[in-house]
Amino acid sequence: MPEGASPAARDPGVDVFYVHPTTFRSETQWSQDPRDVKANAWVDESVMARQASVFGACCRIWAPRYRAASYKALRDPAYRDAAYAFAYADVERAFDWFLANVSKGRPFIIAGHSQGAKHIADLLEQRIDGTPLQKRMVAAYIVGINLSEGEFGLRYKHVPICDKPAQTGCALQWNAIEAGADLAPVVAAFEKGFVEKYGDVPGRQPLCINPVTFDRSRPASLSSEAKGTVPGDPGAGALRPLRAGAVAVSCERGLAVSYLAPGLDLKPLPGGSLHYHDIGLFYADIRANAALRAAAWLKAHR
Asked: Which InterPro entries match (predicted)?
């Protein structure tokens, strides 16, 4: 947890099921081995510290080791889908164990980033949407994948988009990109995926919930509203102290266009994508929002 973050919850009433993104860089294996000590250490030092810990102000955090698809698998279309399906089967089994042994009837948040978000999106569709579990779900944070507005109604028949910051039983998503980057190729790729799956129907625009306001009626936010960003490289090592007021955000064409303060030392991808920083950029804001939603759920179910 970075310096400057709000305190961890002492007796949280909500649990989090968090699924980590792709971290296994093997050039010879399709899937991460959950028994690989070195690979697990990298997961813990990078994404667990910089992503999963964001939920510590509201919740008990549970994150499974799973046979995540490797970078090699994701670069090979011939094996990508099979590797994803293999990984998802692990995630679903882990979710069943979580429900039976950790959550035990308590409210929960599901969350993931990148590959982890894909599995969370599938879990939401296949195991939660329209089932009794939906009543226990505080929110689904599905960050850093192609999730379109139209999927709510087409794919998710019962779970709505999170329109307001304290809304519960809903899902939210964003993809961060640097201001000044060309949005067209990213949006085109996302919309192409939607059309291939659902046809030429309305709703192809990527879903963007501003991760500072968490309010669909406020798609833009000033840097003065940003509660705290994790600066620096998104890899292993000690987290630098949070920096408040470091990012202004505007949801444009379905992407979270981010205007960055100087000196953050981030690691954007080619084309300006801030994929590695989808959570760290808004660390304190997400932390506060998760606590707000958790409190709202608990209050409504007293």
From this structure: AB_hydrolase_fold, DUF3089
The two tokens of residue 221 are 């936010």
d(Cα 289, Cα 174) in Å, to the nearest integer?
14
Structure pTM? 0.97
Dihedral angle at the C-alpha atoms of 125, 23, 212, 269, nearest 10 degrees? -120
Copy the structure tokens of residue 155.
Answer: 């794919």
For residue 151, pLDDT beyond 90: yes
Side-by-side strand order, sheet with 14-19: 59-62, 14-19, 108-113, 137-143, 170-172
pLDDT in tens, 181-195: 999 999 999 999 999
Give the list of residues 6+ apart from residue 121 with CB closer than 8 angstroms, or none: 140, 142, 145, 147
How remote is the C-alpha of 271 from its chain's centroid?
Answer: 21
Query: Following DSSP, what letter does each residue of 104-142 receive, concatenated?
Result: TT--EEEEEETHHHHHHHHHIIIIITTSTHHHHEEEEEE
- In 3D space, the residue among 216, 107, 89 whose CA is nearest the CA of residue 165 turns out to be 216
